[in-house]
Write a structure and sequence with these properties.
This protein is of the alpha/beta class. It folds into two domains: 141 residues, Rossmann fold; 163 residues, L-2-Hydroxyisocaproate Dehydrogenase, Chain A, domain 2 (Alpha-Beta Complex), CATH 3.90.110. It has nine helices and 14 strands. It has a six-stranded parallel beta sheet with strand order 3-2-1-4-5-6, sandwiched between helices. A three-stranded antiparallel beta sheet has the order 7-10-11. Strand 12 and strand 13 form a beta hairpin. The protein is globular. The protein starts with a strand and ends with a helix.
């Protein structure tokens, strides 16, 4: 059986938690870590190897520093390079710094023969993901942004708190930008098989749409205010995407993917439900949206496109 190899670029809070999650879930045989802070990279590798006795099984962990070409043989490369302090008020705050980071590695990795899947979790997520694809000309299906996978979990968190139902029984997704212009796909939310109006009637709880959308879009800043980063939630949402690729799982989750003729929008990355397997995006699944949701889809795409235009160099 072929070894499963994952590379992680940027190993501060989030990248390190992704590495730890992959090892705890026994998803990888080899991990390759990169960071321009070579002292940090060496420290993270050493810490993970020190912990190897406590993981379910052993794996090889390699310190690649800024030698990005050494990641070319990986099945998945995770981009977690970022500067979280720049996004303290808005994910767009990282626009210049994270896109500059991507310029350092994207072309080098593809030129070295990479044939796997990119999973980018850096912010602004849709813009950075589009940049990686644009700089390299790489297969759109193999460049994935974590997108609204995490925001959808935050929406389920808020709905679970209001109704008392377990988050895992709630099917509720945010679409569009991983940012303030995203929107909840209210027309497709279910609790088990119950629709939203049925749940409101049964529980006697009126679910104010705006309140829950704000919780989903801005919930991360609650975490940030307390500890100046988010880490567990984004690392686990990214790990689910990586697992889908490594295990050819064909899960459906909302990720940032290339948009081509979706309700009249094209040429950008934004989140829609996607089937994810060994080849990356196996299929983009476009839901039937209401007129209001379509209007909001256009608005979120316009915001993403405006940000892409600011940094586009491909």
């Amino acid at each position: 059986m072929a070894l499963k190899r994952v590379g992680i670029i940027g190993v501060n809070h989030v990248g390190a938690h992704v590495a730890n999650a992959l090892l705890y879930q026994s998803l990888v045989d080899e991990l390759y870590l990169c960071d321009t802070n070579t002292t940090l990279c060496t420290a993270q590798v050493n810490d993970l190897v020190d912990a190897m006795s406590f993981y379910p099984r052993s794996a090889k962990v390699v310190d690649c520093a800024d030698r990005y070409e050494e990641l070319a043989g990986c099945d998945v490369i995770v981009n977690a390079a970022g500067h979280v302090a720049a996004a303290a008020g808005n994910r767009d705050g990282e626009l210049r710094v994270t896109t500059d980071e991507a310029k350092k590695f994207a072309k080098r990795i593809v030129a070295a023969g990479f044939a796997g899947v990119f999973v980018s979790i850096s912010n602004p997520n849709d813009v950075v993901t589009a940049e990686i694809q644009g700089l390299t000309g790489y297969d759109h299906a193999k460049v994935i942004g974590s997108g609204t996978t995490l925001d959808s979990a935050r929406l389920r968190h808020a709905l679970a708190s209001a109704t008392g139902f377990d988050q895992r029984s709630i099917n509720a997704w945010m679409l569009g930008e991983h940012g303030f212009s995203e929107f909840a796909c209210w027309s497709h939310i279910t609790f088990g098989i119950l629709t939203l109006p049925e749940v409101e009637k049964l529980t006697g709880v009126t679910l104010d749409r705006g309140t829950f959308e704000e919780a989903a879009a801005k919930g991360g800043f609650v975490t940030y205010r307390g500890k100046q980063c988010t880490e567990y939630s984004i690392a686990n949402s990214a790990t689910e995407i990586i697992m889908a690729v490594l295990c050819d799982a064909h899960i459906i989750t909302p990720v940032s993917t290339y948009i081509d003729g979706v309700y009249g929008e094209s040429g950008l990355y934004a989140s829609l439900p996607c089937e994810i397997g060994a080849n990356g995006i196996e299929k983009v699944l476009v839901p039937e949206l209401t007129d209001d949701e379509i209007e909001r889809w256009h608005a979120t795409c316009a915001h993403i496109s405006a940000n892409i235009a600011q940094i586009r160099c491909w």
